[in-house]
Design brief:
Number of strands of chain B: 0
Order of helices and strands of chain B: HHHHHHHHHHHHH
Number of strands of chain A: 0
Radius of gyration of chain B: 33 Å
Number of helices of chain B: 13
Distance between the termini of chain A: 26 Å
Strand content of chain B: under 5%
Largest interface: A-B, 75 and 62 residues
Shape of chain B: elongated
Oligomer: heterodimer
Shape of chain A: globular
Mean pLDDT of chain B: 65
Structural class of chain B: mainly alpha
Radius of gyration of chain A: 19 Å
Helix content of chain B: 55-70%
Strand content of chain A: under 5%
Low-confidence stretches of chain A: none
Number of helices of chain A: 9
Chain lengths: 195, 231
Amino acid sequence: MGESDLDQALVERVQQGEKRAFDLLVRKYQHKIISVISRYISDWSECQDVAQEAFLRAYRAIGNFRGESAFYTWMYNIGINTAKNYLVSQGRRPPTDDIAVDDAEQFEGALRLKDNATPDRELMRQEIEQTVFATVEALPEELRTAITLREVDGLSYEEIAETMSCPIGTVRSRIFRAREAIDIQLRPLLSDEQG
Amino acid sequence: MNQQVSKSGGHYAEEQMSWLMDGELPRDQTRFLLKRVASDGQLSACWARFHIIRQVLRKHELVVLSGDFADRVWARIEADSTLSISVRRGPWLRWASGSAIAASVAIAALLVTQPATNNKSSTDNQVATVAAVRSLSPASAGPLASSPAAASTAPPEFRLPLAASMAIPASASTTDFSQPGMIDQRLQSYLLRHYQATAPVGQSSVVPYLLIATPPRQEAIIPAPAGGENR
């Protein structure tokens, strides 16, 4: 099951009444959606409110989501439309130059939230990034290789098992142990951030 | 928190979260894990942190959120009873529900029209016999009316299976179908209800066919010509 399949599986759970599955989708995509909305709305507080509204709209409409596109593509469009509607309701003109969802991640590096990022948040972001990279560098080689092949190169467990010449169970364990090690370093930083 | 410790030293549920985010957790285990997440906020937090790690390693935009963004979304979903998921019925489901209504109406219509078709192929004496049987108590009328011989008096094109013909005495015990217009009125009532039920969803109906196939009431009391041929 790929990531898109996982999203679809979570959507189906929500459609079957398991609301908590939607919470996992929110926590998975909250950064990306807020990042998208921040291109339209520079005020940080408004941006979060609009993002919240976008997720609520998505929840209301998820019964009609049939997986014809990826969940993120669908959610991305809801985010953009919610932001535009908000601007119109405020008497402001929404920008006309939309970024296609496929290009969005390429733009993200260049379009950081410089306008609305407070120094505190920018510092926090840098700290989180440094902590993650420093912890990965300090991992034992087999854990570092496993997590890099998974997260950076996007290989499946089966492909990683072939590459590292080890059983899939070992790959699972190594990837988790790598995440756990990074997580332990991140927790103190994120205790005041999101859950 | 009652977490099971895995072989690798970590918590098993968190390890399952790791597999889930990679799409490597079997579906049955996913179901149990989601149930567990519903009662364990720490697992949701773990899921969120694992995705932050992913965002950073993939060099995707990382937005530092204030406090409890996801918690507030969740609270809104939980608190607002109007936030229900609207599910659009697929075309196949509409077709199936319409067909089920049509089928049930058709069966009811066939059960109601069965005595009339018997009458159509009978002489006046046979009509009188049926009426006499219905006037008997159910206990005494049952064996006679439900006998295969009685069921076989209907023309082949309208003949019901034995089980259906056996159902006739129970329903006929309270209604005298030999009264002119009785069947047409009841059938008309069924048809009206059927149209009301199926029209809003745009269903075509099988019932008009039954209406065409149902013989006019007058024919039911006209004795068949010699030789037993019906037109």
